[in-house]
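The authors assume throughout that readers already know how a fold can be written as discrete tokens. For illustration, here is how one protein appears when written out as sequence plus structure tokens.
>
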Amino acid sequence: MSAAIKFAPHYTIENYRLWKGDWELWDGIAIAMTPSPFGRHQEVVASLLTAFRVVIEQRRCHATALAELDWIVSNDTVVRPDLIVICGGVPDQHLESPPDLVVEVLSPSTRRNDLTYKRELYQTQGVRTYLIVDPDAKTIQQLTLSPGGMYESTETYSAIKVTVCGDCELEIQSSKIFSA
């Protein structure tokens, strides 16, 4: 173990709640969420949020799609996925249990984190579906939790097809996500 890691501070949710600005907390390590994502990233997040909300309402699912909500995973881990779908209504405060679906939209500053740390975190926390959206390549990788607890990958081309909250099937055309 390097001296830098050995003597690095270990932060908790109590510290996190006092911080100014945009941060995540990964296993006690403060992760700055700056600079903010670029416009293309935010456009894709907004399109996804709208599409999920519309299809959830149409299918009359008992689910809620939310963007940029802190998920308190543990006393020393807090993440803020780009978008989540949870079973039930809007929580009064931050989310404190695993969402049913998580979406991360890749950007140059978050790509590596979304493909490694967050993928592993979401898998170990039992997030049933993890969508990784690449706005530049206009691709969506769908990771679905297998019965053995590991993600199985599917490349999504024309539509996202997921089941949330046990029995609610959602389908969103990829053309609704990516602008021309």
